[in-house]
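Q: Please design a sequence for this.
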């Protein structure tokens, strides 16, 4: 699914770019839009979050399978113009997503027969995401301008269950509340008659381990004992209006 989103996105950008590249010069919309020191906007979009697992040396051979789904994004944009090519952007937003972890029976003791509730952990996450990004833009051509963007971010997971007692033995999959990322992406600014419209795509990659292990006092945990680290990775597709 994520590969399909990326392919479709870049096909759309390529078609739009080449169409204008080989057309005659057009009347410029919002010609002075990018000359303001500060500009603001909002964005809507969707996301696909995944997990990247690293396992301990003695972990079972079968990996944890992550079932992903499309989530929803909404947020605000603040843009600081540095010069004609560089901007500093702050894009706080609300990101809602859902993932399911499918465990193999090999994770459980031989004398224990796991139920479906034991083999699946549903991870519902509501993130307040705070990215600080540097945008590098190409020269404007007619009414569009491509760019690349990169930066760092942190998020607050409102559904982390970090302080919930009992952990997986009580049916609660726990993650840390604060996560830190690096991000990289690309997009294109379209200068329309009354506003600027920007579709963009970004990859996000967590830096810190997000898993909260089960308490050893509760006994061995087939859900967390074999995991060395668990880090989020994902794709954001946003549509920004300024």
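A: Design:
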């Amino acid at each position: 699914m994520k590969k399909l989103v990326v392919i479709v996105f870049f096909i759309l950008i390529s078609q739009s770019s080449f169409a204008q590249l080989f057309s005659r010069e057009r009347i410029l919309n919002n010609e002075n839009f990018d000359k303001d020191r500060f500009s603001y906007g909002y964005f809507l979009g969707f996301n696909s979050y995944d997990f990247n697992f690293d396992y301990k040396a003695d972990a079972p051979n079968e990996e944890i399978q992550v079932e992903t789904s499309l989530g929803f994004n909404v947020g605000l944009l603040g843009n600081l113009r540095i010069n004609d090519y560089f901007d500093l952007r702050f894009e706080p937003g609300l990101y809602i997503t859902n993932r399911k972890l499918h465990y193999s029976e090999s994770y459980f003791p031989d004398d224990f027969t796991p139920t479906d509730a034991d083999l699946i952990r549903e991870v519902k996450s509501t993130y307040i995401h705070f990215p600080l990004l540097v945008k590098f833009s190409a020269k404007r051509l007619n009414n569009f301008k491509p760019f690349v963007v990169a930066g760092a971010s942190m998020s607050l997971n409102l559904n982390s269950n970090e302080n919930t007692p009992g952990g997986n033995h009580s049916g609660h999959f726990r993650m840390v509340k604060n996560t830190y990322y690096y991000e990289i992406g690309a997009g294109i600014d379209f200068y329309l008659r009354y506003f600027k419209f920007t579709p963009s795509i970004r990859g996000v990659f967590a830096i810190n381990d997000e898993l909260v292990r089960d308490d050893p006092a509760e006994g061995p945990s087939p859900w967390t004992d074999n995991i060395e680290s668990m880090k989020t990775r994902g794709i954001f597709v946003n549509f920004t209006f300024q």
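Q: Thanks. Anything notable?
A: The mean pLDDT is 88. The helical segments are 2-21, 116-119.
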